[in-house]
Amino acid sequence: MIELTHLRHVALFSVPFEEQVRFYENLWGLDVVDRQADHVSFRGASDEHHILSIIRSSNPGIHHVAFGLRDKHSVDSAAQTLHELGLPVEGPGPLDEPGGGYGLRFRDPDGRCIELSAWVETHTVPWRSKDVDPVRLNHVVLNTPDIDRITEFYTTVFNFRVSDWSEHQMVFLRCNQRHHSISFNVAPHAALNHVAYEVSGVDEVMRGIAHLREQGVSTLWGPGRHGPGNNVFCYFQDAAGYVAEYTCYLLDIEDESKYEARVWKRVKPLMDRWGIAGPPTVEVRRAMRGLPDAGWFLNSHGQSE
């Protein structure tokens, strides 16, 4: 079993590239750490080198989702495990991306490019406070046409454990104490559902809402508080139409022996326990369903497939 430490970052293709960069730099609260003509990476207030990359493209979709491993030996061992499973793997070796590091990429059963890495650069320069200060990625939710297959893959190949189910529509998976760092949602196709950025508390969520409203960006859903994970939430759409969430207070599972996963009913009081946001509207569900994502990967010659 491959022992992941945490969720590092997500890289997204973006059709309105410049507008998307301005959204995350000027409105969402992230800092640019690497700017190239067709690729911009952003950091949050944590020491993680970057938590988001935006890549210019004519088609939307996920470039890759990155998770941390402990060290080089862990990366090499993961590569061997993935090869034995017959999965296409690029690497292991030095990573040619901002922050560097040593890692690999592979394609999961839904065709998604997943990166595993260690020895990535970290930040030592203090964070300069802004109107809102996203700290790190809290979780990523991905749409899948086969939730049982993808759950079995991530819980047998990796150290993911099921924290909770939302009926048979969503599954919440953890690789550390945090209730979930990745979740899968049933949909007709593989796609990004949303990316959640952690802030320090509910006051910070509300400041983020106020700041975005001042810039003419309305809330998509929220604020509210979820049942599974117990986290505070508020969702928006970015310039490319992806759904982004401010969140805080996600449940920590400190004692595995005392925690049992449960199946939550998909009813109004459990989708928003505060009763302010209510259940997601048709427009919210449409935005989170996203467009079909064919996936992206490098072949052995370094060319995209």
How do the strands of the widest beta sheet line up side by side? 14-15-16-13-9-12-11-10-17
Count of distinct strands = 17
Shape: globular
The helix/strand class is alpha/beta
CATH fold call of the largest domain: 2,3-Dihydroxybiphenyl 1,2-Dioxygenase, domain 1
If you compute it from the alpha carbons, what radius of gyration comes out, rounded to the nearest whole angstrom? 18 Å
How would a crystallographer describe the biggest sheet? 9 strands, mixed
Taking the alpha carbons of the first and last residues, their distance comes to 28 Å
Instruction: Classify the beta-strand content into a percent band.
Output: 25-35%
Give, in order, the helices and strands: EHEEEEHEEEEHEEEEHEEEEHH
CATH class term of the largest domain: Alpha Beta
Can you give the mean pLDDT?
95
Short overview:
This is Extradiol ring-cleavage dioxygenase. The protein has helices spanning 17-28, 72-84, 147-157, 202-214, 268-271, 282-289, and strands at 7-14, 31-35, 39-43, 52-56, 61-68, 89-94, 102-107, 113-118, 136-144, 161-166, 170-174, 182-186, 191-198, 221-225, 232-237, 243-248, 262-264. The protein has 305 residues and is an alpha/beta fold.
